[in-house]
Amino acid sequence: MTTTTALPTAIRADVETLWDYHDMHHPAMTTDIGIGLGSHDLGVATCAAQLLAAGRFPCIVLTGANAPSTIERFPRGEAVHYREHALSLGVPDTAILVEPRARNTGENITLTRELLAERGIEVASVTLMSRPYQQRRAYATCRKLWPEVDVWCASLPLALDEYVASIGDADRVVNMLVGDPQRIDVYAAKGFAIPQDIPGKVRVAFQRLVDAGYTTRLV
Prior knowledge:
This protein has 2 domains: 9-21 and 159-211, no CATH class; 25-154, 3-Layer(aba) Sandwich (Rossmann fold). The protein contains 8 helices and 5 strands; from the N terminus they run αβαβαβαβαβααα. The chain has helices at 12-22, 43-53, 78-88, 105-118, 135-145, 160-167, 170-189, 200-211, and strands spanning 33-37, 60-63, 96-99, 125-129, 150-154. Strand 4, helix 5 (135-145) and strand 5 (150-154) form a beta-alpha-beta unit. The longest helix has 20 residues, at 170-189. The protein is globular.
């Protein structure tokens, strides 16, 4: 299969609409803990390392087992590979906790919460680090499953084209972007997350991209 890092001109406006919607646009905050949510994207661990170095939190939890989309890239598990990457960026091992069992965002939250409780680490605020287009869904999930903490979201500060180039596959990124608005609706209806407003222009952009064939990440 041929992959490209260039977004097709015909869909760019709709992709940009979803990209902006998923970004929570949270300001930089100091929190009690940083949580790196497992995925195929090592940029999450890079973000965690940078924010730790900037003093945004004293410790990082890296969480994730594997999904079908990550088993080949991270055969020892997402959190394990995240840890190795963070160490390579100079993060002290003493500042990293690993949660290696989570298979989805809900488990990222609940199993991290359990791990911190087991370690006697009290948390009133968290920084969730994720892929840029996962921020809103991660926020909604954490607010449902861990309502007593304040939640801030962060990702590597990359522009859309920079992010697509870093992943190396425009189709994959667009399919992921399209999958998340649907999950925001579906997971809230199932009680997995708090509801999020989805503006009309976002729903229109989502549907046009679905009609254009970007459907591989729909549930």
